[in-house]
Amino acid sequence: MGKLKLVIGNKNYSSWSLRPWLLLRWHGLAFEEIRVPLYTPDSAALIEGYSPSGKVPVLLHDDLAVWDSLAICEYVSESLLDGHGWPADSTARAVARAVSAEMHAGFQAVRTGLPMNLRGQFLWRSPGPEIEAEVARIAGLWADCRARFGAAGPWLFGEFTIADAMYIPVVLRFRTYGVPLPGDAAAYVQHCLEQQDVRAWCEDARHEVEVLPQFEARELWEPMPGGAT
Questions:
Q1: Start and end of every GST N-terminal domain (predicted)?
Q2: Rounded CA gap, 53 and 47, in Å?
Q3: Whose CB has fewer CB within 10 Å in the chain, the N or C terminal residue?
Q4: Is 90-206 a domain of CATH 1.20.1050.10?
């Protein structure tokens, strides 16, 4: 296996960067982490030196550049994990790909209204029916996957898969904004938050010095007493 490099953005804000990072870490694949702070005067030029799309994340494997979080995860699964990024069962694998693609392409209201901010901790305040509908859809997806395919373990499909990597940034958003969830979804959130790699990413985020006001959402949310904001 050639040398792997993963180019990511700020850990506090870049949900897309977290997804392939988690997959690589979970499977113990050695890689060099290259962090490029976003929205600085130098960001675009630095990222363009690595990424054909001009965006992060991008995986560099020898002479190959793979951009886009889901494409990176697919490549890692096929080329480096013998397909083990997805469930072995074909039915479970099809559903895992579908829910991952839905996350990749959808839930725009949640992305916009609940921006990634791992240093923030806010009291829940309903942001409106569109976001609430998407939250309900996500919680329903988690419950359905767990009920149908989760008997072998605590993840969406029993064992950790790309689907979990795709949804853990949503888990972290729900924690930041104190989103109320039904019991099965809340249990999945708690399980994800207890994972060593998730905790390591969050700890690195807390030590970052960059502040991006567009992702802070302070005017919309009341800080939780004692929470870091």
A1: 4-84
A2: 9
A3: N
A4: yes
